[in-house]
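note to self — DONT lose this again. spent like an hour looking for the file last time. sequence + predicted structure for the chain T wanted, 185 res
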Amino acid sequence: MSQQTEPTIESLQAELTKLRETNADLLRAKHERGEKIKALVAELDTSKASLTTAQATIHEMTVGLPLKELASESSATPGLWLSAFNAAFKAEMKDGRLVLLNQAGEPVQAKDGKEVTPEWSSLSKHLATSDDASLKELASITRISKASGGGAGSTGHSTSHQSAADAPQAPAKPAMSFGLRSTNR
């Protein structure tokens, strides 16, 4: 039979020293990994912030600026027009082109079944012919015509379809005199 020998104090102290060194190595590795994890988390947060900024910039360039241009072209009050537009529609980039969607996320269709594009002519035509009550506010502030109304090239004659004889006559008013009054009364 084999006899078991009892460990000596020196061997136990050597083993304890070795275990303490191993424990110190493991704690040092744990600390290094913790620092590395903190650095990676900070880098991830920075990357997420950069991604969010880049996405916002891309959205502004591809959707925001074209909508602002459309608002300026479509209304005398672009800020109010954009507000009403955003309440009625969404605009998104799909397959490299700007598409109008309704609030349900479906492409906006005109009465004739054609897709309404984010252009003044298509959108103003859709707003003028739509029966949708939710579009009335937007339709009321959208230019129907790009005519300036300045009357350029006018001959000064009335272009009314009503003849001068049919026009209602205003009562004759006495001519007003300007200047100093005479003292002879």
